[in-house]
Amino acid sequence: MNQETTSISIVEQVRAHVQQLLREQLTEDHRYHNLGHTQNVCEALLMLGQANDLTTDELEVLEIAGWFHDTGFTQTYEGHEAISRQLAAEFLAQHGYPESKTQEVLQLIDVTFPPKEPSNLMEKIMCDADLSNVASSQYFQALEGLRHEWRVFLNQQYEEEEWYALNYKFVKKHHFYTDAARIAFAKQWNSNRKALKKKRDELRAEQEKQSSKDKPVLGSYISDSKSAQTMFKTSLRNHLDLSTLADNKANIMLSVNALIITIVMPLAASYVKDNIYGLIPMVMLLSTCLTSMIFATLATRPIRMEGLTDEAAIKGGKSNLFFFGNFYRMTYEDYEKGMLEVVSDNQKLDNSIMRDLYFLGSSLGRKYRQLRICYTIFMWGVIITVITFGLLYSWNVNG
């Protein structure tokens, strides 16, 4: 069997296998990453490959990679590239495909993962073909399919203006790697980019016009704005990280002062028996350590919690049931009733988010204020103790 026959055979087998796999295992919610998308990518691969004068073997590897590159969606949405590589490797091994070509196929699949940059011509062609949809006349239909997938599989929901702004930014920054792609796709890509910008601007203007008529209530703004939600999530995470850092700093001071009291002080006491001038520095150091430990302990001491929240506070949006200190003594029935009251009202839910951030910040401010006092006392206490010891020692020697 000659090379050409073998090549046609393996490509046909791959094509038939992937078509069957995608038809049987993709759901109706896969409205973008589906068989149609894979077929379009393969067509673009062959067109770009031929335009770049690739050999028959190179076209074969490209087409096989094109057919397999999204098969991982049959098992997972995020991280599908790894599954696609696995499915391709297993199929090609079963059909005795050369190992060197198999590795090329897997590398081409791997480069479709967005953060990675292509390093050779075939990888550039693969990237151009995979995102050739941005220069498709059916681009906006594909965009709605992608939006549906993100909502279903990633739980990411976007308002109209936010969605078109996001995609306009992506298309505007996108560039094709090969001259053939730039020549073939430039006109439609530019048309899609302008249409996206127009759509975004229209929706933004409509939104601003509506805002001027009916200014939104802050409480409902958090629930409706992805940007506001992201900012609150980031702030809460940063506050928690800073709280952990404060506790670590307090533990360091507790450990250091405990070591001084348990190890250094007994040694100093034996020294003072014969050198009475060392008594004053020893007392000063002991006072410094004890005072520092008090403030370090205060910084890590848990706040006082009632564990109960009355119904009036919940209905008035004056409590945060997401914090355990407000409900650990409540019965489950009362907690469930209160939680349903909160999550059913965006105003109350947003108030809970803001209260959580506020009181977490207040607690964090208290921690750092006491830590600052602790570290200041320790720093100056040690400095003064050393200076005092030096002066007394000098006086005793010279006296």
CATH-assigned homologous superfamily of the largest domain: 3'5'-cyclic nucleotide phosphodiesterase, catalytic domain
Highest CATH level, the class of the largest domain? Mainly Alpha
Indicate the overall shape.
elongated
- Please bin the fraction of helical residues: over 70%
If you consult CATH, what is the topology of the largest domain? Catalytic domain of cyclic nucleotide phosphodiesterase 4b2b
Radius of gyration: 33 Å
Task: Walk me through what this model shows.
- The chain is an all-alpha fold.
- α2 runs antiparallel to α6 (121-130) and α10 crosses α11.
- It folds into 2 domains: 3-213, Catalytic domain of cyclic nucleotide phosphodiesterase 4b2b (Orthogonal Bundle); 224-398.
- The N and C termini lie far apart (108 Å).
- The chain has helices at 3-25, 35-51, 56-68, 80-94, 99-110, 121-130, 139-153, 160-173, 179-213, 218-224, 226-274, 279-300, 311-315, 332-343, 346-398.
